[in-house]
Amino acid sequence: MLSMRQFNTYSPSTFEVIKTKYIMNVLNNYVNLVSKLGDLPLLALRLLLAYAFFGPAMMKWGNMESTIMWFGNPDWGLGLPFPALNAYMAATIEILGVFLLAFGLGTRFISLPLIFVMLVAYFTVHMGNGWLAIGSADNDPEIAERIGLAKDILKEHGNYSWLTEKGSFVILQNGAEFVISYIVMLLTLMSFGSGKISLDHLISKMKNK
Hints:
By secondary structure, the chain is mainly alpha-helical. It has ten helices and no strands. Helix 4 crosses helix 5 and helix 5 (83-103) packs across helix 6. The longest helix is centred in the first third of the chain and has 24 residues, at 12-35.
């Protein structure tokens, strides 16, 4: 331990050097620590995406006839050519994505067709609806006016407390917020792979033995 006399002999520049080294040491320790967690975010991304695709996939497979009609109808649907083919392709890619992403198998390969499905969804459904999935009454006076009128009607003619018990009423803007987020997440998995907590990593280790 330094004595007071030794401590007092340090110049201001020496203190700056010590402080800089201490800060750099703390930063290096932090980087080393978070680097060890690198595979957990990749696992989290895979599981979140698997969960996100599960609902749409099951909706399509649960009523494929309605899905095909929605894909093909130009008035109230997507107006896509070959609606049956496109509906089955989208549903198949999504359900495959659920299982492959969850187990981390062929992650880089399944991410590409999933991105294609998301791009189709963006251009056919979300592109003209802005960014937000849920309309913001704070940023759009027209949305605020409509929500206000809807609340007044419900309070006057319905059991408003019961109707809003599970959550507030909102306007579904159906913007690109989620679909773009999913594309970015899939691009991350394409770049970094599925991580060590995956079947991809296990298969790779077995091949290298």
